[in-house]
Design goal:
Helices cover 32% and strands 20% of the residues. The protein is of the alpha/beta class. It has a 7-stranded parallel sheet with strand order 8-7-6-11-9-12-10. The termini are far apart.
C-alpha cells in the first residue's frame, strides 16, 4: 500500500532531488550506473511508466491525490509519496508544479546506435543542440511525424532534463534515442556504414529543395539538425549526401531549429 507523507520540513534529505539537486547532479548520482530524471505532469509520468521507467518517489500537490494523479499512485504502489499544498511545494521546488505532480525516476542504460537504427528508415540527428526547449520540441515532432529514432552528439543537452521532457510532452519515452559514442568523431561515416544517406539542414548555395524527389525517395535517410546560431559544422555539411533548404518568403532567412525540424520531418517522414 502506498504511504503518503505530509511535508512540513522542505529541507528533508529525501526531498533534495526535487529542490536543490541540479540536472547534472541527478544525471550522475549513481555513477557509473544511470542516474535520475524528474518527470513533470500526469501525462508525462504516465508515458514514462508505460515505457517501463521505474519511479523512485512522487511529489504531489494534495488536491491531486484523489484527482488526476490517482491512477499514477495506483501504478506506483509502495513508492514513497510526499504531499503538501501548492504554496509549500512552490517554495520547495522554486516554481509552480505543472498539474501538481513530479516523479523522480531511474534512468536506463542507453543502447548502442546500431541497435537504435536497426530496422529504421528515418532518423533525426541532433548536432550540439544545447537548448532544452528545442531538444524537447524536436523529439515531439520526430515522434509525431513519422521518424523512427533520434540520435544525439555528445554536445547536445540531455533529452531527459526536466524542461526537455516537459516540452516533448513525454514523447522522449515513446521514440528510441541514444548518443553517438564519444570515440566516433565522424558520426556521418557511422550513419553511412549503416546504409543511411545523410541530409544536412543548412543554408548553402548548393542546397537542394526539401521537396527534391531523389531526397524524398531515399530508402534510409538521416536528417541532420544543427545548433541555433552557428548551425552545422562545415565538416558535417561536407560529409553529407545532401544539403537541404526550406524555401523562405518575405525576406526571412531561416527558421528556429525546432520549427525547421517539424517541416523537415513532415516532408521527409513516413506517410501512410
Amino acid at each position: 500500500m502506498t504511504e503518503i507523507t505530509e511535508i512540513f520540513d522542505i529541507s528533508a534529505p529525501e526531498l533534495q532531488i526535487y529542490s536543490s539537486t541540479s540536472e547534472v547532479q541527478l544525471l550522475r548520482c549513481f555513477e557509473p550506473e544511470p542516474g535520475i530524471f524528474i518527470a513533470e505532469s500526469p501525462k508525462v509520468i504516465r508515458r514514462a511508466l508505460d515505457a517501463g521507467y521505474k519511479p523512485i518517489s512522487l511529489l504531489i500537490e494534495r488536491k491531486y491525490i484523489n484527482g488526476q494523479a490517482r491512477d499514477i499512485l495506483e501504478r506506483c504502489d509502495n513508492v514513497p509519496v510526499y504531499t503538501a499544498d501548492s504554496d509549500v511545494l512552490t517554495s520547495l521546488t522554486g516554481f509552480k508544479l505543472t498539474q501538481g505532480v513530479l516523479c523522480a525516476m531511474r534512468r536506463r542504460v542507453l543502447p548502442d546506435v546500431s541497435v537504435i537504427c536497426s530496422g529504421a528508415s528515418r532518423v533525426a540527428v541532433l548536432e550540439d543542440i544545447m537548448n532544452q526547449t528545442n531538444v524537447g520540441a524536436i523529439f515531439r515532432s520526430a515522434a509525431a511525424l513519422g521518424f523512427d529514432a533520434v540520435l544525439l552528439t555528445s554536445g547536445c543537452s540531455n533529452p531527459l532534463y526536466r524542461r526537455s521532457v516537459r516540452v516533448s510532452m513525454g514523447t522522449v519515452f515513446q521514440i528510441p534515442w541514444t548518443y553517438f559514442d564519444n570515440s566516433e568523431t565522424d558520426y556521418i561515416s557511422v550513419l553511412k556504414r549503416m546504409g543511411f544517406s545523410a541530409a544536412a539542414m543548412a543554408l548553402t548555395d548548393d542546397s537542394v529543395s526539401i521537396s527534391n524527389p531523389k531526397l524524398m525517395s531515399e530508402d534510409k535517410l538521416a536528417v541532420i539538425l544543427g545548433t541555433e546560431g552557428d548551425g552545422l559544422k562545415a565538416q558535417t555539411i561536407a560529409a553529407c549526401d545532401y544539403t537541404v533548404k526550406i524555401p523562405m518568403y518575405h525576406g526571412v532567412d531561416s527558421l528556429n531549429v525546432a520549427a525547421a525540424s517539424a517541416v523537415a520531418f513532415w516532408q521527409l517522414g513516413r506517410h501512410e
